[in-house]
Design brief:
Layout: H1 2-22, E1 28-37, E2 40-49, E3 52-59, E4 64-71, E5 76-82, E6 90-91, H2 96-106, E7 110-113, E8 119-125, E9 128-135, H3 140-149, E10 151-154
């Protein structure tokens, strides 16, 4: 009886290992971005692709704040919004005029291929423009996943 149950156990372990090896595990780092929306505090949560080598923050003269994650291969993932206050906590500005200001700064919504063959994409989520640039087409799905992972939570 012992010899009959042992092969079943081994088969079960092999089946579990096969299932686990077939599932695609997303390699991401979760980033939280605290901001104020009117009188409410919120958190933007994004699962950015792993491998970030540096991060920059830039605010232009129109109040467009861009947080960019840089990768060793030249890829970039970014989050942009219109910030109307210079408090430590970002205070986003909603509205069509604000979104047009952000789009003028980072570009219109869409996707495509750069002249060097790398991919780019920009999408509007809530009052943010989130996107990537200079991404190897083979890695574009990872960056698309990051765009779709974006959620706003009560903060």
């Amino acid at each position: 009886m012992y010899q009959q149950t042992k092969p079943r156990g081994i088969l079960l372990i092999m089946a579990i290992a096969a299932i686990c090896s077939c599932t695609t595990l997303k390699q991401v780092d979760t980033v939280e971005y605290a901001f104020a929306e009117g009188v409410f505090n919120r958190k933007l949560v994004v699962a950015v692709p792993v491998g970030v080598t540096s991060e920059t923050h830039h605010r232009d003269s129109n109040g467009v704040l861009v947080r960019t994650f840089h990768y060793a291969d030249g890829s970039e993932f970014y989050i942009a919004c219109k910030d109307h206050d210079l408090k430590p906590l970002i205070s986003v500005e909603r509205g069509a005029a604000s979104m047009e200001t952000v789009k003028r700064s980072v570009g219109d919504e869409g996707q495509g291929t750069n002249t060097n063959g790398t991919a780019w994409r920009r999408a509007v989520r809530d009052c943010f423009v989130v996107g990537y640039d200079f991404v190897d087409p083979k890695k574009a799905k990872e960056f698309d996943y990051a765009i779709h992972s974006m959620k706003v939570r009560k903060g």
